[in-house]
Write a structure and sequence with these properties.
With 247 residues, the chain is an alpha/beta fold. The protein contains 9 helices and 9 strands. The strands form 2 sheets. A 6-stranded mixed beta sheet has the order 5-6-7-3-8-9, with helices on both faces. Helix 4 crosses helix 5, helix 5 crosses helix 6 and helix 6 runs parallel beside helix 7. The longest helix is centred in the middle third of the chain and has 15 residues. The chain starts with a helix and ends with a helix.
Amino acid sequence: MDNNENQDIAIEVTDLWIGYKNIQAYSIKKSLLRLKKAHVEEFQAVRGVSYTVKRGEILGIIGKNGSGKSTMLKALAGIFCADKGTIDLKGHSVSLLSIGVGFQKEITGRENILLSGMLLGFSEDEIKAKMDDIIEFAELGKFIDMPVKTYSSGMHSKLAFSITAVLQTEIMLIDEVLSVGDAKFKKKSYRKMKELISNRDRTVVIVSHNEQTLLELCDRVMWMHDGEIKKIGDPKEVLDEYGEFMK
């Protein structure tokens, strides 16, 4: 790969393997008495996956439940570590938009905005300058100053989306969030997402079961199956083949 091509790459994944260990239940007492080790089974969620995403590209990932989609996204976000292989984000800042990830439930929405922003690499002053915009977009009213543990899943998604939409990173990772929330907010977030990804300096990876969303938004689609890439390429071509496979 020449230097120009390399500069155009935002994400480079090489021979990535990620497994989960499943320890079968044994009581400590029984284990000690029998002098046996607990039986450990390992499930390979991602198996030898390699691909690149160009700077400014929108890549969709589709696949049935358990295919490794969300594991892949969380690995890109740095939440999961690779057992083998590498992920190179070329020094770009990255944010993950996913329900149930990244919030401290005991503190308020406002405090979580500050914490989330700092974890994304923004300074306290930068976050405070955008705080009102985030709160306004989230439409949470008085709940913004209540603990996140009191939030519904829809409220949680509104806050998560608003933080990512206003505090914009160079790489955005989106996990099914556009399908959560009330109808009005879905339309608003979809419009905002289209606006964000129209910036061709921003790279986006979207995991979704919604084929129409992927068809409308993505430059390429990657179909994952049993932890491997079954096909990657033109959205319509990949989604048509995926649809036939799932019938």
